[in-house]
Amino acid sequence: MDQTEKVNILLVDDQPAKLLTYEAILSPLGENLIAANSGREALEHLLRTDIAVVLMDVSMPELDGFELAQIIHNHPRHRKTAIIFVSAVHLSDLDRLKGYESGAAHYVSVPVIPELLRAKVSVFIDLYRKTRQLERLTRELEHRVAERTAELEASVAKQVELAERLRHADHRKDEFLALLGHELRNPLAPVSNAVTILRMKEFTDPEVRWCIDVVQRQTGQLARLVDDLLDVSRVSQGKITLQLGPLDLAAVVNNALETSQPVVDARRHALSVNLPNRPVRLMGDAARLTQIVANLLNNAAKFQDEGGRIDLSVACTATHVEIRVKDHGVGIPPEMLPGVFDLFAQGERAGHLAQGGLGVGLSVVKKLVELHGGTVSASSDGFDRGSEFVVSLPLLPVEPAPDLAPPASAGETTAVRPQRILVVDDNRDVAESVAVLLRMCGHEVMVAHEAEAAVKIAFAASPSAVLLDIGLPGTDGYEVCRRLRQHGLADARIIAMTGYGQERDRQRSRQAGFDAHAVKPVVIDDILKLLA
Q: SS3 string of 196-218?
C-alpha cells in the first residue's frame, strides 16, 4: 500500500470516555480511527474493514479482551492484525502470557502515557504498511512469474510445433530428394548408355567423336551433381554409415585421379601428383575417401581458367596424413574463407566461370572428413591467387601392411561369361540401351517393361541374371523380386537398377531379395562387375 494511504485503527472499550481519550491521543497520527463500544461491535467492523491495529480494553462485559483477541486471530483475514491490550488493573505474568497466547502484541497500562501509546501504535502501523507492500510485491511477482511461465509454456509449445513442422518438412524434403534423384537419374541412364554404345562404334569424323566426348562429360557432370545433392542431405542427417577398413592411401588417390581425370583433361590442366615412397595406411571407407579427393580435384579443375595447374601432394606426420590439393585459379577472397565449406557457398568464386556447380561439394567433403575423425581447411592469398585445401586424417599404427589388391583401372572391362539376362524397366530407353550394351558384350538379353510381363518371361526363360527397376508402375520391383525368388529363381542374380539410391531404398532391396543395388546411371563396366 502507498505510504500516504491512511490505515484503520480500531478502538474497543465499553467506556465512551476512554474511547474519546484514545482518539485524542492517536489523532495526531493522521490515520482512520474507528470506535467500538463492545466486542461484538468490534467484530462487525473487523468483518467489513481491513484493520491495521486493534487497541482494546482487557475487561469488557459479555466478550472480554482475551476472548475477542482469540476470535480475531482465529480468522484467516486478521491472523496477523496487531492487538494492543489496555489494562487498568495490575496484570500478573500469567495474565500477560494468556494475552500473548490469545494474540496480543503488546500491553499498555493505565494511566496511559500518550507519547508511549502513539509510538507503539506507530510501530505497528509501519509494520502493517510494510507487510502490505510486501504482499503486494509478492502478488505482482507471482503474477509476473505466472505471465512469464505462460509465455515460456507458449514458447515451448511453439518450439515443439515448429520442431514437428521441421521434422515433417525434413521428411518431405527427403521424399522430394528421393523422387528428384529418381526422376533425374532415369533420363541420365539411357543418355549415358547411348554414349557408351556410340564410343564402342567406329567413327572417323572428328566432330562426331568430339560430340560424343562432350555428351559423356556433361552426363557425368549431371550425375555428380545429383549424387552431391543427395549426399549432403544424407550426411547432414547422419544417414551415411562408413564401411571402415584398413587401406593404402595410394589406392584411394589413384581411384580419385581416375574419377577426376575427364574433368581435368577437358579443361586442359596440368596435374602433378607427389606421393610418399612408402605405403600410407589408414582406417577408412575407400569409396568415401575417394569421393573426398575427387571432389577437391574437381573443385580445383573448375575454378581456374583452362590450361591451369593442379598440385596434389601427400605428406605424413607422426600421427596424421595430410592430403593437399592446390590450384592456381581464381582464389578465395578473405571474407569468404570462413564459410567456404557451408552448404551452397559459391559467391564470387563461381561468378565468371560457367561450371560453378551447386555449391555442395565442399560441404560434403567437410562432413565426410569429420566422419573419418579428420579435419579439412582452406587457404588462399586472395582473389585470383589460387587456393589450397588440406585434409588431415589419422594414420593407422605402424605394423606390417596387409596385402591390398590394386584398384581396377577405369579403362578395364570385367570379363563375364555369356549369360541369359532379363532387363526390366518401364523406361523403354533405359531398358533398350542396357540391352544393346549387354548384347554387344556377348550376352543373350530379354526385355520387359512391366511387372507381369517380366514374371512371365522369367518363369519361361529362367534367366541367370535379372536387372530389375524398382519404380515399376502397378507392382513395384520389390514385389517382383519376391515373386521371382519364391517361384523358381532362387539362384538367379537379381540386381536392382534404379534411380532410388537412399539407404532405406538399399535396405528394402536387400529385404526383398536383391543381390545388389545399382543407382542409375550405371556404366557398363559396373554392370558387368555386378554380373560377375
A: HHHHHCCCCCHHHHHHHHHHHHH
